[in-house]
Write a structure and sequence with these properties.
The chain is an alpha+beta fold. The chain has 2 domains: 3-147, Fructose-1,6-Bisphosphatase, Chain A, domain 1 (2-Layer Sandwich); 158-266, D-Maltodextrin-Binding Protein, domain 2, CATH 3.40.190.80. Helices cover 28% and strands 27% of the residues. A hairpin with a 5-residue loop joins β1 and β2. 38% of the residues are buried.
Length: 267
């Protein structure tokens, strides 16, 4: 992606984040329930419109899958070699609870794999960007950038980060299995901040054995793998892939580079 358009994408994320904060700091979220009983607010819709309109202006030949828009049928999508994948407000439940643990997720997908990814946390005015093979950069709302280094090897507990609002029995069972061999510390976080915790060296593993969609993981998977970690399905150890007929993820685990040999324990 050329530099000028890349900067414009960062500006889009900041603008969308500001629209989210305007709702967050107000008194009326206008919360509704979608067909799957997940909540959607005025902030989801406002952020989604800003990102969609901006991406369409910048890249009018690249299609977009946005959680808050009607998703094209697979017969149309399966022909796409490249597309943007957007979650305009990841962590809507945390947004409603006003605990700050929400983000905007954006990924450029090529041949069913993420090749560029952005995670932006509006409340802190801070985000992370990765291009495959190009490292990971932290950026802020003033568009100042800083390349981040891989974390140092940790010793002691295995720090497992899990969802704050979607902690499932299957995840508890898998953690109990790991506890038979290792000392474990549990960390609860909302949204893609769980994946950011891995790349910042604040967690070693992210387990997901509950509902989750492709837009929840694409940029985070790219970043975890960029720093030498692995992301795979629990059932068959294959990598997560994107643009499936149904845009739901199977149960999966993300591991930092120090835990790549731990995979067999979560099968």
């Amino acid at each position: 992606m050329e530099e000028g358009k890349l900067i414009s994408v960062f500006e889009l994320l900041v603008s969308a984040g500001n629209s989210i904060l305007k709702v967050y700091n107000g008194n009326n979220f206008e919360t509704e329930l979608k067909s799957d009983n997940s909540p959607v607010t005025r902030a989801d819709k406002s952020s989604g419109k800003i990102i969609n309109d901006g991406l369409n202006q910048l890249f009018n030949t690249i299609p977009i899958i946005n959680e808050e828009n009607q998703i094209p049928n697979y017969e149309v999508r399966e022909k796409w070699r490249q597309f943007f994948l957007v979650d305009p407000l990841d962590g809507t439940k945390e947004f409603i609870k006003k605990n700050g643990e929400f983000s905007i997720n954006l990924a450029l997908i090529e041949d069913n794999k993420p090749v560029e990814g952005w995670i932006y946390q509006p409340l802190l005015g801070k985000g992370w960007y990765c291009k495959k093979g190009g490292g990971i950069y932290e950026f802020d709302e003033r568009l100042q950038f800083n390349r981040i280094n891989q974390f140092e090897t940790q010793s002691g507990n295995i720090r497992i980060v899990t969802s704050r609002s979607f902690f499932k029995k299957r995840e508890i069972d898998l953690i109990d299995k790991i506890k038979k061999h290792y000392s474990v510390e549990i960390i609860h976080k909302g949204s893609s901040l769980k994946q950011i915790a891995i790349i910042l060296g604040e967690a070693d593993m992210y387990l997901k054995a509950g509902p989750c969609s492709e837009w929840d993981t694409a940029p985070g998977q790219l970043m975890v793998e960029e720093f030498g970690g692995t992301v795979f399905r629990i059932d068959n150890f294959q990598k997560l892939c994107y643009n499936k007929p149904i845009l739901k993820n199977p149960h999966f685990v993300m591991l930092n580079k120090n835990l790549n040999t731990l995979g067999l324990l979560v099968s």
